[in-house]
Structure formats: structure tokens, C-alpha cells
Amino acid sequence: MSDTAPHPIPMVDLTAQYPLIRGAIDDGLAAALDEARFILGPGVQAFEAEAADYLGCAHAVGVASGTDALHLALLGAGVGPGDEVITTPFSFIATAEAICYVGARPVFADIDPQTFNLDPDAVAAAIGPRTRAIVPVHLFGQPADMPRLQALATHHGLQLIEDCAQSFGAAIDDDMTGSRGVTGAFSFFPSKNLGGYGDGGLVTTQDEAIARELRALRNHGSHRRYYHDRIGYNSRLDELQAVILRAKLPHIDHFNDGRRRVAHRYSEGLAGRPGLVTPHEDGIGRHVYHQYTLLCDDQAGRDALMERLAAEHIASAVYYPVPLHRQAAFGGAEPVHTMNRNGPGCPVADSTAARCLSLPMYPEMPDADIERVIDVIRR
């Protein structure tokens, strides 16, 4: 037996895809540096047009981060002080932070136990007289149940704002996530399905008036230099990040197919293992596996599995250990802002947070590493 420790398997290897896009990135960066138009330059404009075309949206507006994208998407949809916005408690905090940024109040509706996305029945139970919008998150790359959520929004006259931070390239029938809501918000954090080499974000809409408003909001409330129609923000997508994103965008379907390859091999190799539930594809949309997240029987089993993987130099992570309705920023265990289909609280989110575990996931993950992860878990 060799005394050499096995090589580490990271959650994501951002260097693996660089050789494929190195030429396009180097050429694009050189051109941007020669042009020296770094703020809302030609690269940003070109990326916005290309992203809008890919996503099937009339307009795409580049912003400085995914959190800013959510913030401006809510403002563009007209959400503001005194409004209530129904969203999921099982997401990164930015989803609910952005609701607070516009002066609205988040109301957390429980999640579906299989997809981890918003449960439409819980959303229906949470709708009240001050409800203005619904913000579904296409969590881990699995599209939310948009047909039912759209029907609810239409029936109650609510705005539907999509959090697409983890779902670039996911689709429902022929519609990409981000194309069905009044606005959609994307993140280009480096580890995302389409990631930059720093922060960046995008807001999508089919509405020309909203797009015009978003372009002003990201640029100090200005449509024309030094003329400011309202208080805005400094939230512009960086020209150099646009170069990176333009180099990656033509490969996004290939990258997502790679993620699905890894996910399906995990699911095949772990099928039927006692104490584990592998991710569910509900058939509503094409899952693009930003994360591969399984469930253990209980928290003790989850923590023991993490320790075993770590001992074998295999990374794993918990997304998310504390659901939003239990975060101190939103009042801790306060149940007033929560709802499931039967009453207050988010028991499915609570249970999922205690049992979930995400495995290494990136498009270029070698088959041998996938098999090693499976083997350690099976043992």
C-alpha cells in the first residue's frame, strides 16, 4: 500500500476550463486595454446583446454583482417600502437582503422537499393584502415551478421576479430562466455556471421601459452624463469582466452538459444507498446543477459523511446550514414571517438545512475523481 495521500478533490476547479477559453480571453483583454474604454464600454454592450439573445430576453442590463442584480430587479419591478415579497428561506442571504434594500418585507414560504424550490402551495398560503411580488430562486440549477407560480402571480396581480443566480442556461420548455418574470437577476460570481473572474451581475426583462429604468439606476440615476433624474447607484458591469463572460458564453451549454454528466454519474453510483437521497429532477425544467446536493437521514449522518470525505481529501459543503427565517438578521426563530401550506413555519427548509450536503461539482471533473467520491460514500 502506498503512503502517498490521494490528491485533493476540490468543490470546484476554476483552472480546468481556462485552456479552452485562453485565446479568446487574451485577445479580448488586449483589445479592451488598447481601446481603454473601461466603463460601460463596447465589451459590456456586446455581452448584454449576446446574453439577451441567448436567454430569449428583449433586454439584458449588466451590473456590478448578483446582489445588485436582485436589488435593481426589484426596483425595476416597482417593489418598495410597505410591500411584502414572498420568497424562499432556503437560499443565499442576498435573495432576502435585496428585498430589505428596497424597503420591503420578506415573507418566507416553505420549500418543496424534493426540488428545494419554493412550494407553490406555501406561496398561495402566504399571499396577503400587502403582497406585491414573488421571488422564486432556481436553486442549485433546478428551475422553480414557474407555471404554477406564474398562475398565482397573474391571479393575484403580483410581480414575479426570478432569482437566477444559480441557473444560467437552465430552461423550462423552450424558455430560459430569467425570461418569464417581469425581471430576472443573474450572478457572475466565479463559481457560477457562467462565472467571471470577479463580481458581476445581469438583470433581464422583456419590458423596454423597465430596461431604460435599470440602465439609469445602475449609473447614478442618469440617462445622460451629469443629468440625474433620480437617486441611483454605482453598479456597472466591469468591461474586463465582460471580456471574460463573452469568452465563456458560447460554451455555456457545453459547460452545463458537463455538470449534468457529473450529476448523473453521482446519482447512478449512489442510487439506492441507505441513508441518502440523491437530487430530484422534476421534469418541469432542465436542471443545470450549479450544485449537486443530496440529503442524509439526519444531521449526525450528514456531519459524519463530511468528516469521512475530508479524511479522504474530498471537499464537501453545506448549502445552507441556517435557513433565512432563522438568521439573526431576520429575527432568528421568529415565525411571523414564515408560512407553509398548513400554517406558520418552514419545517421542510429546517429539515433540509440539517440534512443537506453538496459534493464536488464542475464541468471538467475527471471521471476518476467522480468514481472516487462515489466509492468513499458507498464505503
From TrEMBL:
EC number(s) on file: 2.6.1.-
GO terms of molecular function: transaminase activity
Family note: Belongs to the DegT/DnrJ/EryC1 family.
Keywords: Aminotransferase, Pyridoxal phosphate, Transferase
Full protein name: DegT/DnrJ/EryC1/StrS family aminotransferase
The protein's enzyme class: transferase
A Pfam family assignment: DegT_DnrJ_EryC1
InterPro entries in the record: DegT/StrS_aminotransferase (IPR000653), PyrdxlP-dep_Trfase (IPR015424), PyrdxlP-dep_Trfase_major (IPR015421), PyrdxlP-dep_Trfase_small (IPR015422)
Residues annotated as transmembrane: none
UniProt cross-references to CDD domains, sorted A to Z: AHBA_syn
